[in-house]
TrEMBL record:
Chain ranges passing through the membrane: 21-42, 282-306, 326-359, 365-388
Keyword Membrane set for record: yes
One Pfam match: MacB_PCD
Family: Belongs to the ABC-4 integral membrane protein family.
Superkingdom, natural source: Bacteria
The keyword Ribosomal protein appears for this protein: no
UniProt-recorded name of the protein: ABC transporter permease
Entries under PANTHER family matching the protein: ABC TRANSPORTER PERMEASE YTRF (PTHR30572:SF4), MEMBRANE COMPONENT OF TRANSPORTER-RELATED (PTHR30572)
GO MF terms, alphabetically ordered: transmembrane transporter activity
Keywords from the UniProt entry: Cell membrane, Membrane, Transmembrane, Transmembrane helix
Record organism: Anabaena sphaerica FACHB-251
Coarse class of the protein's main subcellular location: membrane
Gene Ontology CC annotations of this record: plasma membrane
């Protein structure tokens, strides 16, 4: 019997037991679909976070109070950065194009009978340039607003909807911590960055925040939550990090460890890539367990099939079929089940990826490599787990097989 006849006979056998064949494929279908979907969604999550980091602004460096060891041990880090540090970076570091500082606090914002607890961001006029934000309506505050500690506020897009709905908020008065502020502008949609949702935040001049909302607590100047600096270009980021480190060490008169940490977009992207890659691998491995379970299911069903088809095997061997013919037929049946299950599972996985992309912000991607690997592995599983029942069928004695029937 040649290979083509073995394939035809295997196909007829599987079609004669459609329900059993379908149930045998189920484990492979679930395994393949899960592996492909998990890898695609994991890559989509990685792209989503990378886009969020890129939206922070071009060539951004974050200067954060406290060294890395202190930050790991405690969230309550003493603020070691002041507004004068940001001004020094802007004027004394040649590789920096612009800097801004942020002083964050939680306050209740009220407009008429509507109130909400939001993040109040005290910042500088250079915020728009450094963070690559745009004003949708009105204007942003100026150097004059900051020097005079004017009580003006720029609203995030979502906060504007909460407080004003479809009404234009520009020139309206809102209250922040019992102080009246005039709305002068609304930012475009941006989303959250580093855990801060700017769409639901309110931005005020940093001196106004210190004088009216937070208060000054340091004898060395106005403490800030962190400083954000924009390098002149991507090639200047490493040099800017080195120069900022030297400048702040001199300003803070440090001898030992730094009392600040500098983080760049490149560092953040590498960290995100490592974490998301590990999570994707872990999820794919968990999903891959179902492929193994599916292979065991194939072996179990094929062993049952050998028992049920004892008479057929005996008859075929009695009329001249060799052990190799019987072995080949059962292996082909197992591989066909695995490959068809793999293809159906691939369709299910791709469908899940398309659905996730349509219903969520994740740009889940279809990986040709993962599809090829999943289908190849499923075929290999069919071959591996099909060998035991195939060998058992091939080794049946024809006389014993005919008698047992």
């Amino acid at each position: 019997m040649n290979f083509l006849e073995s394939v035809q006979m295997a196909g007829k056998t599987l079609l004669a037991n459609k329900l059993r064949s379908a149930l045998t494929m189920l484990g492979i279908i679930i395994g393949n679909g899960s592996v492909i979907a998990m890898i695609g969604i994991g890559e989509g999550g990685q792209k989503f976070v990378a886009n969020q980091l890129n939206s922070l602004g071009p060539n951004i460096l974050f200067v954060i109070p406290g060294n890395e060891e202190v930050q790991r041990v405690s969230r309550d880090v003493t603020r070691t950065l002041v507004l004068e540090d940001a001004k020094a970076i802007a004027t004394q570091v040649p590789t920096i194009a612009a800097t801004s500082a942020e002083l964050n606090s939680r306050q209740v914002v009220t407009y008429k009978n509507r109130n909400t607890d939001v993040n109040i961001i005290g910042t500088t006029p250079s915020f728009l340039t450094v963070r690559d934000f745009e004003v949708a309506t009105g204007r942003f505050f100026t150097d004059i607003d900051m020097k005079r500690s004017n009580q003006v506020v720029v609203l995030g897009a979502k906060l504007k909807e909460k407080l004003f709905g479809n009404t234009n908020p520009v020139s309206q008065q809102i209250r922040i911590k019992n102080a009246s502020f005039q709305v002068i502008g609304v930012l475009t949609d941006k989303g959250s960055n580093l855990g801060v949702d700017y769409d639901e935040s309110a931005l005020v001049p940093i001196l106004t925040s210190a004088n009216r909302l937070v208060g000054k607590t340091s004898p060395y100047g106005l403490e800030v939550t962190y400083i954000v600096a924009s390098a002149k270009d991507a090639d200047s980021v490493d040099a800017a990090e080195f120069q900022i480190t030297n400048l702040l060490r001199q300003r803070h008169k440090l001898v030992g460890e730094n009392d600040f940490t500098i983080r760049t977009q490149k560092d953040a992207l590498q960290t995100v890539g490592q974490i998301s890659g590990a999570l994707t691998t872990m999820l794919a491995a968990i999903a891959g367990i179902s492929l193994f379970v599916g292979g065991i299911g194939i072996m179990n069903i094929m062993l049952v099939s050998v028992t049920e088809r004892t008479q057929e095997i005996g008859l075929r061997k009695a009329i001249g079929a060799t052990q190799q013919d019987i072995l080949l037929q059962f292996i082909i049946e197992a591989v066909i089940v695995s490959v068809i299950g793999g293809l159906v599972g691939t369709a299910v996985g791709v469908g899940c990826i398309i659905l996730v992309s349509a219903l969520t912000p994740l740009e889940a991607s279809i990986s040709i490599v993962s599809i090829t690997m999943a289908v190849g592995i499923s075929g290999g599983i069919g071959l591996f787990f099909g060998v035991v029942p195939a060998r058992r069928a091939a080794q049946l004695d024809p006389i014993v097989a005919l008698r047992s029937a």
